[in-house]
Structures are given as structure tokens and as C-alpha cells.
């Protein structure tokens, strides 16, 4: 390879690295801007974070981040390492944030207006904490308390890779 080609390749590599760094910096600044808009940091789950508990609803959890809004209410933020789902947050992610909203409300005496789901690629969704969300969460919580009625429909494909297959009474395939 002649010297001009090597120089061109090196320049292209340096340029690509610069673009990657600039993109990462822009994403980080965007996250900081959104965080500042939400308010000061209240807590962060760094292994020894406060576990929120509700004996009334028999729930407990540790939101990844808690931020205080300018009006004093606390908002839970759930961090996900995966990319932002194209169709928006999954139902399980929404329910998790609703549970955190209920726990924050129980702990502080004030309902947060929303919870936040933040994905690894920077995508972010505000999940409203409303009477409708509360009703759905409490419906699901009550459903969990009901005894199993045997209505599961086993699936050979799903059961074969399920981590609970050894103890499940609805499995389609043996151990």
C-alpha cells in the first residue's frame, strides 16, 4: 500500500472515531438535559439503594433512579439496557414502572404524575400514573394472588426453554 493510501485510511479511522465520540457525547448531554428537567436526584440503585415496600399492597422494589420534580413529587426512573422497542414500552416494563409509582406514592404520600422508562440507546418514555393505570396494576396484583386454576396452555417450544419447567405443573415437556 502506498503512503497516501495509508494516510487516507488513518484519516478515515480518526474521523470515524471522532464521529462516534461526538455521538456518545450528544446522547449523554441529552440524558443530562432530561434529568435536569425532571429535577434533583433523590436516590440511585447502586447496590445498596433503599428498597421501597408496601405491606398494604404486598409489593416491594428498588427503582433504578428517583428524581424530585420542582413541585416536590418523586418520580421513578427505570433503566433498561436493551434498545428502545419500536412499538414503545412493553407491557411488562409499563407494569414495573406502575408498581414503582405505587410504591413511591405509598412511601411519600404523594402520587407521582408519571414514571420514566429509559432504554440503553437513549429512547425514553413517560408512563402516566393515572387512576386507570392504578386500577390495571391492582387488577394484575389481585390476579397474582388467585390460586392457579390450571388454565395455562402448554407450548412445547416455550416450555422447552422455560426456566421453570422443572417445577411447573402445566409443562408440555418433561425434565
Structural commentary:
The protein has helices at residues 3-38, 91-108, 131-145, 156-160; strands at 41-44, 52-54, 59-61, 65-68, 74-80, 114-119, 124-128. It has two domains: 1-38; 39-129, Lambda Exonuclease, Chain A. The model has no long low-confidence stretch (mean pLDDT 82). It is an alpha+beta fold and 175 residues long. A hairpin with a 4-residue loop joins strand 2 and strand 3. Strands 1-4-5-6-7 form a five-stranded mixed sheet, with helices on one face. A two-stranded antiparallel ribbon has the order 2-3.
Task: Provide tags for this entry.
single chain; 175 residues; alpha+beta; Lambda Exonuclease, Chain A; five-stranded mixed beta sheet; two-stranded antiparallel ribbon
Question: What can be said about this structure in brief?
Answer:
The chain has about 180 residues and is an alpha+beta fold.
Along the chain, the helix and strand elements come as HEEEEEHEEHH
Radius of gyration, rounded?
A: 23 Å
Biggest beta sheet attributes: 5 strands, mixed
Could you give the order of strands across the largest sheet? 1-4-5-6-7
Number of strands: 7
- Unreliable stretches: none
- The rounded distance between the terminal residues' Cα atoms is 59 Å
Strand percentage, roughly? Answer: 15-25%
The helix/strand class is alpha+beta
Specify the overall morphology. flat
CATH architecture of the largest domain: Alpha-Beta Complex
Give the quaternary arrangement of the chains. Answer: single chain
CATH fold-type name of the largest domain: Lambda Exonuclease, Chain A
Number of domains: 2
- How much helix is in the residues? 40-55%
Can you identify the CATH class of the largest domain? Alpha Beta
The number of helical elements comes to: 4
What's the rounded overall pLDDT mean?
82
